[in-house]
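> run fold HTH-type transcriptional regulatory protein TyrR
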Amino acid sequence: MLFLQRVIPYEKTIEFSTDGIYVVDGQGITLYVNTAYEEITGYARNELVGRHMRELINAGYFDQSVSLHVLERKQQVTILQKIGQQQKDVMVTGNPIFDDHNNIQLVVTSVRDITQLTRMTNELKRERSRAKMNRHMYTFTLNKEHTFFLSPQMNQLIETIERIADFPTSVLLLGPTGAGKEVLANLIHSSSSRKDNPFIKINCGAIPENLIESELFGYSRGAFSGASSDGKIGLLELADGGTVLLDEVAELPLAVQVKLLRVLQDKHIQRLGSVKSRKVDIRLISATNKPLRKLVEEGRFREDLYYRLQVIELIIPPLRERSEDLLALIDYFFDYYVRQYSIQKMMDPATKLLLLNYHWPGNVRELKNVIESMVVSVPATTIEPDDLPRHLKNIGINASTMSLKEQLNEVEKRIVYKALEDHPSLRQAAKQLGIDHSTLIKKLQKWESC
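> ok
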C-alpha cells in the first residue's frame, strides 16, 4: 500500500511510458504492472498483481525472472529474454530500491521490446554472410543470358515448369552432365514468386564430407574445435524465403540426408551445437546425373528423402536426342559470343554440319565451350572444318592420326567415364581409380572446359 500511495502522483507518467514497468516487493510479490507491459507481453495486470514471481515462472509466464536475480544479487541486473504470448525479444533491467537498513524494499523492472532491433541485427548478419558467400563457390547468381529450346521434349518441360513454378513443392532434375539442369533450375526460380529472394546453389560433390553438415546447417558458438566464436549461418538458413539448388544431391552422406529430411518435414533448421531450432521457408530443387532410384534400392540413398525430393520429377534428355535444340543452340551461342567479344566471324556450312553430326557427350556445356573457343581462337574470319578441335573434325578417322599424348588422354577419359558409370558416387569412382576425390573433380572440370 505504501508503494501505491507513492506511485499515484507519477502514475500518468508511468502509464505513458513506452517501456514496460514491472514492480515487485522485497519478497518477490508483484505490486504493479503498467499498460505498456501489458501490450508488450499480452498479459493482463490482474493475472500478475499479487502473485509471487516463482509462482508465475512455474505457471509458464516467464522462463526466468530478473526481479529474483536482483533480490539474490542485491544489484542491478540486465538480461535478454523472449517473453509474452508472441515470444517477443525484450531487454529487461531490474533495479533494486533499498530502505534505510540496506534491505531491498522494491525491485523496479523496465522491459524494452527489441524485437525489431533483433530482426534488423539478424538481417545484417545474413546480408554479411550472403556478401561473403557471393565470393564462395557454393553461391549462385541468376544468369540473365537467354537460352531457348525448340525440341518437343524441352518445350514440354518448360510448360511443366510454368505450371509448377509458384508452388513451393520440391523438384528433382535428372539428366546427364551439362544437359541443362542448372538452366531449368534458373527458370523455376525466376518464374516463381521467390524470384527476388535468395537463390543459393550448393554443389554437394564439391564440399568435403567432414564439412558438408556445418556448411548446410551452420553451427553455434563452440560447436566444435576450430569453430568461429560467433557461430555461422548455414547455407539453407541463408536461403530463407528463396530457393536452394542441391546439385549432385546423390553425393550427400547418409547422416546429412537424415538431417535434410527433418528440415523438409518440419520446416525448421537446427545449427550444429545448438538446441534451438529456427523456422525456414525454402523451395528445394535437387539435381543429379545418377540413378537415384537404383541408389535407394542399394541402400545408398534414403527412400524417404528420395520421395520428399521427387514431388515433381523432370528428366532432361541428352543433347544428342534433341536435334532441333542442337541446331538452334549452335546458332545462338555463335551469335552470342560474336556479339560478346565484338568479333566479325562466319561459320562455314561444312563446319556446322560436323557440329551437327557430333554426339556431344558433354551436352550443352561442351557445345557452348567449343563454340566460344572457336570464336576467340580462330584468326580467320570464316571458321572452317579444319579449325575445329581434332575430336570433332576427325570423326570416323583412325586414332593413329592423333599424337601419343592425345591418344593417352582419350584413353584416360574413357577409363574415368566408365568408372563414373559403374560408381554413382564421385568419391567411390575416385577410390576405384586410385586417385584423390579432388583430383577427379579437377580432371572433369578440365575436360568440360576444353
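The two ends are 87 Å apart (CA to CA).
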